Structure formats: structure tokens, C-alpha cells
Amino acid sequence: MMIQRRTRTLAVACLLAATATLAASGCSKSEGSDNASADSSQGAQAAKSPESSSGSGCSLQTYGSPKLDLKDAVVGFSQSEKEANPFRIAETQSIKDEAKKVGVKKLLTTNAQSQLSKQISDIQDMLSQGAQFLIVAPLNSDGLEPALKAAAAKKVPVLTVDRKLNSTACKDYVAFLGSDFVEQGKRAADAMIKTTGGKGKVAILLGASGNNVTTDRTKGFVDQLKAKAPGLKIVAQQTGEFARDKGQQVMEQLIQSKPDITAVYAENDEMGLGAVTALKAAGKKPGKDVKIVSVDGTRNAVQALVNGEYNAVIESNPRFGPLAFATAQKFYGGEEIPENVIISDRAYDESNAKASLGGAF
Predict the structure, then answer these.
(1) Within 10 A of 183 (CB to CB), how many other CB atoms are there?
(2) Which residues fall within 8 angstroms of residue 299, CB to CB, at 6 or more apart?
(3) Is-contact 183 212, C-beta < 8 A?
(4) CA nearest 173: which of 143, 228, 227, 134?
(5) Contact 353/302 with Cβ under 8 angstroms?
(6) For the whole model, what pTM was predicted?
(7) How far apart are CA 61 and CA 327, in angstroms?
């Protein structure tokens, strides 16, 4: 796991002001959902200032790239996973919408289809097509070195979103934009403690291996339970690979092998919704017989909360378009960008789910 280091800069405060007023537009209809038009003012992404500071930020001068006007630039966006996942749908759409709003000359988009080798070749292909700035949603925290080296050779800045790289900031990439994943795990644990009364047997549906999101969300959850609710016992941890069908399969197996499970922590909503399907098929009542807490904030998960089949959702906002392009503009304007631009994420429970449904993606 790569420990997040918070760095001193005024850029974060500026980003907060710049992006709080931007409407997020990546609210595409997801599989199996009945989405009304989303309330973009509720869904807007905003950065928060670091609580502590160390080191310095990354500027255009220190990174060593030429100055660029985005309106006369070719920008590339590398998506990591299949867009059957509502998070990825919303993320890609947000990048596309904001590129259009900003007036980017040309936006190249690729999808690695959950294959690291394809993401490397995707990035190299965009560079060969003249990409001058790259926004990358990494599939894994490690393994993108060939693509990063290719970008560095052409002095093309790389901005990473939603997953961190185990590489050197302001050398291999400019900055990371995303959530505090350890904090998400802690908040999920607090929600689980609240809904269970601090007692029971919990199964964790782990995300995909090889990235900091899974590692950090697990650590935050496990450590918080140990510290605050020793009566909540973790009896199973098994990967569902961030996929709904895999989450359902794992839950079906756990119902047989661990029939006394009383709670499920899913490290994304898709796996949690898969667990709901499995529990229903087994004659159990999700949200009642088995409590469910997950991370993301998809429309379907928040609707499940409204329906009483879920207990809490910790948001992980995918609408990176406004923040990513605001960061790029500040970078090219000569401002220092902090290594980690951490966003504020909301939480949904039975008290606010119905009123907040419009902000879900």
C-alpha cells in the first residue's frame, strides 16, 4: 500500500473554489437502473484542503513540460475497466463533458477492458496520435511504467484519477485526484457498527487485487472494527473483483459455507448489489437479516437503501471531469499542484437516501 502524503499548497483551496460551482455531468444510466435525471448540484465533486502539510507541489517548470493551451491541445483519457460499471460510465462521461465545456481541441478516449497490457498500449497509442496531456484512471497501482516512460520521453504530463500509482509524483506523473480510501473504509466500519449495534459476523467482499483502493478500503474497515467494535467479527474475506456477478457468486458461496453471517461489507456497490441478489435467492432479507454497507454511491445502491434492502453507502465520487481540467489549467498556468488532491465524499443512509437520490450516479 502506498501511504498518501499530503503536501503544502494553495492550489487545493483554489481547486475547491473552482470546482464547487461546476456541475457534474457524468450521470449516465447504468445497467438495471431506472434513473431519473440526476441533480448535478448534489453530485458535484469538490477537493478538500489537507489537514497537514509536507514537501512541495508540482509545477510545470519542475515537471519539465512545455506550456500548453488546452483549447489548442490533444488530450487523452485512458479508462481502465469495462463500462458496465456505473462508476466507470459516470467517470468517462464526466471527462468527455468537461473537455467539451473547456473547449479542448481534441479528446482521445480508450478503454483497457480491465487488461493492464492493453492500458499500456492504449496510452502509447494516444501518444503516437499526438496526445499532449494525459488523464489516466490506472487499472493497477503497479505495472504502468512502460506507458509512463513513453509519456515522459515526449514530456507529456500525466494526471491520475481514482487510483494511485506506486510511482514518483512530479516525475512519473503530476498528481493524484481521488478519495481517501482508508477513510472510506473507516466510515464504512462506523456505518456498520451503527446498523449492527457493534455485534455480529461480517463478511468482506474485497475489490480487485493489485491496487491501492482495495488495500486501503480493507485496512480502514478492519482497523476501525478492531478499535471500536471487537464484537463485530470478520469471518470471511473474499474477492468479488469489483463486479456484480462475482459479488453474487461469492455471496452464494458464503451463504453455504458461513450461514451465520449477519453483515456484509462490499468494497464497491456492484458487489453489494450482487450480494443482495444472492441473499434474496436464498430466502434472506438483505438490509434486515443481513446488513449491507458498501462504497461508491451508485443510483442503484442508494435506491436499495430507499427500499430497505441496504443499510449504508459511502460515496466515492467518479465525476472527475471538472476537477481534472481545473487542475490541468492551473498546472499550465504555473501553479503548483499537490501530490494528492483529495476529494470530499458524502455518505448515504436511511435518513437521507430518498432526498439524496438525485446526487447519486
Answers:
(1) 17
(2) 27, 30, 33, 35, 38, 86, 357, 360, 361
(3) no
(4) 134
(5) yes
(6) 0.86
(7) 15
Which triple of cell numbers denotes residue 94? Answer: 464526466
Three-class DSSP labels, 133-185 = EEEECCCCCCCCHHHHHHHHHCCCCEEEECCCCCCCECCCECEEEECCHHHHH
User: Over the stretch 193-206, which tens digit does the pLDDT of each residue have?
Assistant: 999 999 999 999 99
Question: CA 257 to CA 194: how far, in whole Å?
Answer: 26
- Give per-residue pLDDT as tens, 228-247: 999 999 999 999 999 999 99
Residue keyed to cell 481502465: 80
CA separation for the pair 65, 184 (Å, rounded): 34
What number of H helices and E strands is found in the chain?
13, 12
Residue 351: exposure state from Cβ atoms within 10 A (0-12, 13-18, ≥19): exposed
DSSP one-letter string for 247-305: HHHHHHHHHHH-TT--EEEESSHHHHHHHHHHHHHTT--BTTTBEEEEEE--HHHHHHH
